[in-house]
Amino acid sequence: MNLSDFLNDQSLYTLAITHRSYCNEHPGFKSNERLEFLGDSILSLIISERLYLLLPDSTEGELTNRRSYLVQTSSLATKAIELSLDKILLLSRGEEDSGGRQNPSLLANTFEAVLGAIFLNRGLDISKQFLLQVFPDSELISEKVKIKDPKSLLQELSQSKGWGTPLYQITATDGPDHAKNFTLSVIINQMLAGSGVGSSKQKAETQAALAALSNLFPNS
After folding, report:
1. pLDDT digits (tens, 9 = 90+) for 115-134
2. Which of 20, 76, 93, 148 has fewest C-beta within 10 Å?
3. What percentage of the chain has pLDDT greater than the value 90?
4. Is 145 inside a domain boundary?
C-alpha cells in the first residue's frame, strides 16, 4: 500500500510521524500527539461501524470485545510496520538508541496519528478506504479473532486455577497530562504475570492481560 494515495498533505504527513522526543532536539517541530488523539476516535468509529454491518447477529458485548482485540496495541504496531512507519518515524537520538522503532506502543500511536492526518487531509470516506485495506473484511470477521476480551479471559483462567482475581497495578506514567502513557503490571497468585503499556489505563491493562495470557496460558 502506498500511503501517499491517502495522505498527500506534506505538513500533516510530517506531523503524523513526529514523536515528541524529536521535538526536544528540533524546537520548530510539533509532536503527533494531537493527531493520535483524533485518530484513536476515528479508528474506533470506523471499525465499530464495519463490525456492526458485517456481524448483524453479534451482541453488543461481542462487538466490543472483537473491536478491542482488533485495535489493541500489538495489532496496530504490526499494521504500522506493514506500512513501514517504523522506518520513517522522526525520533530523538535517545529514543532511537533505546529501541523506539520497535516499541509497540510508540508504533501503535503513530498508526493512529497517521489515520488522524488522513481524516483531516481527505475526510471520512478516504479514511474508511484506508482502513478497509489495512483491516480487510475477512480479518474483521475471522474466527481467529478472540471474542472474549483479554482481561475477562485472564480472570476466568486464573480463577479456574485457584489463583484468584488478577490485580492490576500502575508501575509508571510518562508524558504530558493530555497524552500520558501508562505502564501497568498484573499480579496473579502473588507473582508478576505480565506488564503492558498504553495511552490509557484500560489499554495498558489490556496489554498486561495479553502478556499474562501468553506467559501463563499460551494455548488459551
Report:
1. 999 999 999 999 999 999 99
2. 93
3. 59
4. no
